[in-house]
């Protein structure tokens, strides 16, 4: 009996302050990122005693989103949920299910200056009036990686990455002819990098209504001349062996091709930087901005982001929202942001975090770590390069992969494949518009 | 007469109650939900719902993707069933001839059945991976450029192999049992009459195995259609260009990834009808027509 009493006393005293309000946060960060996330949460929980944020790992991005939807239907939703960028259209359309971040901060009286955030990052998640709807947490942008040793062997300057696609082709052929590597380049994400970012980088529209920011009546329009030219080139280069396809979605066969020095150049997320450096054991890695076509006026514009943001769900007890607002302020602080940015390779969401990282000498010590930031801030984003916002976009990305595969298999030409993306994608957009009426 | 065994009319119902409850909660209720959902159009959060009648079914009828999934499922189910039945039969015949080591072989051959589909899928994913896999490397040596990420045919071969593999064990077990129940005297009599091994196989073994074969045929088609989700998800994810997107995978993808619950529900109702049809065939047709 005495033992029991002692045990329960120990339990009582070790649990955090009694009256603390619990705030649940569902996220999709596994592995090291998940551990870092928990460390950040711990920092917040220890910094005050009124709120306890409880993070829960819910699996992949789609799984986390699905879990949230099911929970919302059962009225068991968490206060905060991490949603990937292509889920933005779905979350926005769910009026009454989410509480916009700008409104939350206003209602709870938290100091909040939208101007302190990096436009290219938060722009993706603001409504047409410029109000921030969700809080960017982990954002990245695709950058260019290359093998310096192979460049050297092929007689190229290892310090000069190709700037244009013409140079990529030229360099690839030199590399292949000299036998320095078997293939020129590979890439992750045909959808995100070689289609969406290609469009933004060349200031070309992806869809109507400002890439969908204007509303659910938006339709795709990514079958323009620049996209057609690029897809046509990718097919030609795939046939010549200059380019090797890494598979659908994130292209999980692309990284091994670069790591094994099969392909000399590689495009993928800036957040892959740490992984690339760790895996490039036998060679030096160089970094550069994404290539562009120099005959397109206005290129390069700026690249767009990917990653995830934190959405606030409606329907929780009022006191929890105060805690959410305080937690968001904490997350946006320069120290927390700079730490997360440097650890993960994700972009800093505030200017202050970027400046702090620079002051700490991180960019000097880690070459290539600032390419992403420089790329998204290269120019003031236009209607075409703010990002994109369409419903059913997860499926549309799958369609992009499928039609690209049709192109590679020689069943369609570039124009035909992209026309099919637009046609099939628009059917899904019409369906989404009807569902959310 | 039978009712007289129970003095109390309530007792049989009480005894049945647990099973009925399980059936109602885990089978009937979800099935009813699926049917209801298939007539609705709803956003992902359930904020706005409208009744659309048969629109979800009509959309499937006109959808090239869905018709493709039906076609892919048919090819996949037939190929997987034939491959697993064929290989299992050959192995069973071989083991049946063994006197001493038969048990050891049987145990070894049944082993793969214990491997979870997702684990098997990952295993095959590694073996066939175009970049790091063993098999593409070997095939490359003999001049075949294996790439199931780009070539639909390679992808189909991969998922059929991966699905049939674990299934061979199951069929094998039934075939061995079937072969052992064929009286040795029939073989001996035929041999005395001058029938060779091939002749005996086609006139004695195969006809007498027909109940087993028919049972396995139905069971395997059901398996290939409904239980291979893990294999597909772990290897090709339905690609490239939907060439391995079987119906059950599409139900999951449209519902859970695409958040199109109405269409997903309509597709599951169609699958449900197929299962019912196959079950009826198994119970009515096969039980009656096959000679024992």
UniProtKB/TrEMBL annotation, chain A:
It is found in: Periplasm. It comes from the Bacteria. SUPFAM superfamilies: Periplasmic binding protein-like II. Keywords: Signal, Transport. Transmembrane segments: none annotated. InterPro entries: Bact_solute-bd_prot1, SBP. Its main location: periplasm. Residues 1-19 form the signal peptide. GO terms for cellular component: periplasmic space. The complex is composed of two ATP-binding proteins (UgpC), two transmembrane proteins (UgpA and UgpE) and a solute-binding protein (UgpB). Belongs to the bacterial solute-binding protein 1 family. PANTHER family: ARABINOSE-BINDING PROTEIN-RELATED, SN-GLYCEROL-3-PHOSPHATE-BINDING PERIPLASMIC PROTEIN UGPB. Part of the ABC transporter complex UgpBAEC involved in sn-glycerol-3-phosphate (G3P) import. Binds G3P. This is sn-glycerol-3-phosphate-binding periplasmic protein UgpB. It comes from Paracoccus sphaerophysae.
TrEMBL record, chain B:
GO terms for biological process: transmembrane transport. The lineage of its organism: Bacteria, Pseudomonadati, Pseudomonadota, Alphaproteobacteria, Rhodobacterales. It is a multi-pass membrane protein. It holds the Pfam family BPD_transp_1. Part of the ABC transporter complex UgpBAEC involved in sn-glycerol-3-phosphate (G3P) import. Probably responsible for the translocation of the substrate across the membrane. It comes from Paracoccus sphaerophysae. Residues 70-282 form the ABC transmembrane type-1 domain. The chain crosses the membrane at residues 12-32, 44-62, 74-95, 107-127, 155-180, 201-226, 265-286. Gene3D superfamilies: MetI-like (1.10.3720.10). Keywords: Cell inner membrane, Cell membrane, Membrane, Transmembrane, Transmembrane helix, Transport. This is sn-glycerol-3-phosphate transport system permease protein UgpA. It is found in: Cell inner membrane; Cell membrane. Belongs to the binding-protein-dependent transport system permease family. The complex is composed of two ATP-binding proteins (UgpC), two transmembrane proteins (UgpA and UgpE) and a solute-binding protein (UgpB). The keyword Manganese does not apply. Its main location: membrane. One of its GO terms (cellular component) is plasma membrane.
């Amino acid at each position: 009996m005495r033992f029991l009493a002692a045990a329960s006393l120990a339990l009582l005293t070790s649990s955090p302050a009694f009256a603390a309000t619990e705030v649940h946060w569902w996220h999709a960060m596994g592995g090291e990122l998940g551990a870092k996330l928990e460390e950040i949460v711990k920092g917040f929980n220890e910094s005050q005693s009124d709120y306890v944020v409880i993070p829960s790992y819910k699996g992949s991005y789609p799984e986390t989103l699905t879990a949230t939807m099911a929970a919302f239907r059962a009225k068991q939703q968490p206060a905060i949920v991490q949603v990937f960028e292509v889920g933005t259209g779905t979350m926005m359309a769910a009026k009454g299910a989410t509480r916009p971040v700008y409104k939350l901060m206003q209602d709870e009286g938290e100091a909040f200056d939208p101007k302190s955030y990096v436009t290219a990052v938060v722009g993706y998640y603001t409504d047409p009036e410029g109000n921030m709807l969700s809080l960017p947490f982990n954002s990245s942008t695709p950058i260019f990686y290359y093998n310096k040793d192979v460049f050297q062997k092929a007689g190229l300057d290892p310090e000069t990455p190709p700037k244009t696609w013409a140079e990529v082709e030229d360099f690839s052929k030199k590399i292949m002819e000299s036998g320095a590597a078997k293939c020129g380049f590979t890439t992750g994400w045909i959808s995100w990098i070689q289609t969406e970012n290609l469009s933004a980088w060349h200031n070309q529209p992806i869809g109507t209504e400002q890439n969908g920011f204007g509303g659910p009546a938006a339709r795709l329009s990514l079958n323009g001349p620049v996209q057609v030219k690029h897809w046509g080139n990718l097919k030609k280069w795939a046939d010549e062996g200059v380019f090797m396809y890494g598979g659908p979605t994130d292209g999980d066969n692309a990284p091994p091709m670069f790591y094994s020095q099969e392909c000399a150049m590689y495009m993928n997320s800036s957040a892959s930087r740490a992984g690339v450096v760790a895996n490039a054991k036998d060679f030096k890695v160089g970094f550069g901005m994404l290539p562009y076509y120099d005959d397109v006026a206005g290129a390069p514009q700026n690249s767009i982001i990917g990653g995830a943001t934190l959405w606030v769900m409606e329907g929780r007890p009022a006191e929890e929202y105060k805690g959410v607002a305080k937690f968001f302020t904490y997350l946006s602080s320069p120290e927390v942001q700079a730490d997360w940015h440097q650890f993960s390779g994700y972009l800093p969401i505030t200017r202050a975090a970027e400046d702090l990282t620079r002051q700490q000498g991180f960019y000097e010590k880690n070459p290539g770590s600032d390419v992403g930031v420089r790329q998204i801030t290269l120019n003031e984003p236009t209607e075409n390069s703010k990002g994109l916002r369409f419903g059913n976009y997860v499926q549309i990305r799958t369609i992009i992969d499928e039609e690209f595969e049709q192109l590679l298999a020689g069943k369609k030409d570039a124009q035909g494949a992209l026309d099919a993306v637009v046609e099939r994608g628009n059917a899904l957009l019409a369906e989404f518009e009807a569902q959310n009426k | 007469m039978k009712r007289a065994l129970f003095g109390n009319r309530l007792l049989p119902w009480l005894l049945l109650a647990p099973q009925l409850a399980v059936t109602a909660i885990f089978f009937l209720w979800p099935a009813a939900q699926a049917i209801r959902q298939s007539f609705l159009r709803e956003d992902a959060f359930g904020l706005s719902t409208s009744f659309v009648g048969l629109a979800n079914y009509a959309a499937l009828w006109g959808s090239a993707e869905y018709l493709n999934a039906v076609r892919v499922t048919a090819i996949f189910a037939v190929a997987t069933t034939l491959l697993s039945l064929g290989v299992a039969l050959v192995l069973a015949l071989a083991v049946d001839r063994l006197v001493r080591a038969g048990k050891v072989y049987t145990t070894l051959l049944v082993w793969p059945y214990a491997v979870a589909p997702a684990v098997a899928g990952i295993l095959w994913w590694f073996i066939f991976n175009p970049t790091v896999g063993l098999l593409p490397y070997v095939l490359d040596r003999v001049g075949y450029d294996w790439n199931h990420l780009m070539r639909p045919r390679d992808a189909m071969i991969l998922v059929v192999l991966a699905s049939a593999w674990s299934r061979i064990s199951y069929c094998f077990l039934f075939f061995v049992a079937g072969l052992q129940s064929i009286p040795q005297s029939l073989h001996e009599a035929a041999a005395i009459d001058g029938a060779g091994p091939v002749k005996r196989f086609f006139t004695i073994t195969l006809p007498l195995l027909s109940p087993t074969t028919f049972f396995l045929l139905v069971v395997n088609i059901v398996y290939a259609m409904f239980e291979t989700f893990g294999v597909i998800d772990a290897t090709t994810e339905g690609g490239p260009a939907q060439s391995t997107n079987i119906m059950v995978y599409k139900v999951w993808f449209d519902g859970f990834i695409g958040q199109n619950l109405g269409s997903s529900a309509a597709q599951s109702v169609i699958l449900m009808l197929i299962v019912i049809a196959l079950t009826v065939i198994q119970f009515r047709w096969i039980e009656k027509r096959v000679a024992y």
